Automatic annotation (TrEMBL):
Protein name: DUF1538 domain-containing protein
Keywords in alphabetical order: Membrane, Transmembrane, Transmembrane helix
UniProt xrefs under InterPro entries: UmpAB (IPR011435)
Protein species of origin: Breznakiella homolactica
Source superkingdom: Bacteria
Length: 229
């Protein structure tokens, strides 16, 4: 019960300032139809309840499972299997990500060259491939700066040949992959892997997996843009 109360307060602290600001704008500048405003207030109630339940679910189940899953994969001792599962998890967790769905729907409405399913699949494959790469980095003790330097080198090369609208979309895709579903699970899985594989302190390897994972969709969508020229 105490956990529910503390989580609810955290959500309210984040939502109430937004409600106050919107209310001030509604009564002073915006003056939208009142139906819109009352729908906003009703939606806020559902948001608070849903987000509270979501965060509790993450903390008591999703995150602990991710850490345990990552460490148990390492204990199997088979790197190929670990990287394969890392790829699959990256894809599966990204496919239902709400932010990815919204971005793909918006892009599908304005771009005629690619469909919503293709965009979602491209983003998910990019995340999966680079989650596997991030796990490989942890295993081999490679510094994250080398991975990111090489990755952004590929990005800059692809930008030369990619249409402008795809370039903008690709970088937006890199941002939406760090959403409410992907971040907790992928990061906790990386922590679990690092806790078993790292020599000495694992703190250096605990982080960087999200930076690498979010680079994947940028590269895959830029590549799609080049192929769709």
């Amino acid at each position: 019960m105490e956990k529910i109360k503390s989580t609810l307060l955290e959500v309210l602290y984040g939502v109430i300032p937004i409600v106050i600001l919107i209310s001030i704008l509604q009564f002073t500048i915006a003056r939208l139809p009142w139906d819109y405003y009352f729908d906003f207030l009703a939606g806020t109630v559902f948001l608070v309840v849903g987000l509270t339940m979501f965060l509790i679910g993450l903390e008591i189940g999703f995150i602990p499972f991710g850490e345990s899953f990552g460490s148990s994969l390492v204990k199997s001792g088979k790197m190929r299997i670990i990287l394969l599962f890392g790829f699959i998890i990256g894809v599966v967790v990204t496919l239902p990500e709400p932010d990815v769905q919204v971005l793909a729907a918006q892009a599908d409405a304005y771009l005629d060259t690619v469909s919503k399913p293709a965009l979602i699949l491209g983003i998910a494959l990019g995340v999966g491939l680079f989650v596997a790469l991030a796990l490989f980095r942890i295993f081999k003790g490679i510094e994250v700066k080398y991975i990111l330097t090489a990755g952004y080198g590929i990005v800059f090369i692809l930008l030369i040949f990619c249409p402008p609208e795809f370039a903008s979309l690709a970088f937006d895709a890199g941002g939406v992959t760090t959403g409410s579903l992907t971040v907790p699970f992928i990061m906790s899985m990386g922590v679990g892997v690092a806790s078993v594989t790292s020599k000495g302190s694992s703190s250096a390897n605990n982080f960087g997996i999200l930076a690498i994972a979010s680079l994947g969709p940028v590269i895959t969508l830029l590549a799609m843009g080049v192929l769709n020229r």
